[in-house]
Amino acid sequence: MSTVNAPVYAFYAGNDARIGATVPATTAAMKTAGKKYEPVTYDGAGHGFMRAGEDPAIKYPQQDCREQGLARLIALLKRL
């Protein structure tokens, strides 16, 4: 974590146990390293939800989670 030089804004899928399992340790390591790490988990979303949400055939919750994630991303970019 010592080489991280920028804030990390993470977008996690609630239905992605393999990746989600890494969040507590990553949070602790980033805190110990004094780094900014803001993870958000989108309940009901599956792995790749930000990309999969582009498919009009995919409905809730993927689509809703993608819209929430994109709104967060846009707000973060405007703030930076």
Provide tags for this entry:
alpha+beta
Detailed description of the structure:
The protein is α+β, with helices and mostly antiparallel strands and 80 residues long. The chain is built from 4 helices and 2 strands; from the N terminus they run βααβαα. The mean pLDDT is 90.
Distance separating the two termini: 22 Å
The residue fraction in helices comes out at 40-55%
Helix and strand content put the structural class at: alpha+beta
Determine Rg (CA atoms, Å).
14 Å
For the sheet with most strands, the description reads: 2 strands, parallel
Number of helices: 4
The share of residues in extended strands comes to 15-25%
The global form is flat
Strand order of the largest sheet: 1-2
Order of helices and strands: EHHEHH
Number of E-state strands? 2
- Low-pLDDT runs: none
Average pLDDT metric:
90
How would you briefly describe this protein structure?
45% of the residues lie in helices and 22% in strands. The chain is built from 4 helices and 2 strands, in the order βααβαα.
List the helices and strands and how they pair.
Layout: E1 8-15, H1 17-20, H2 23-32, E2 37-46, H3 49-52, H4 62-79
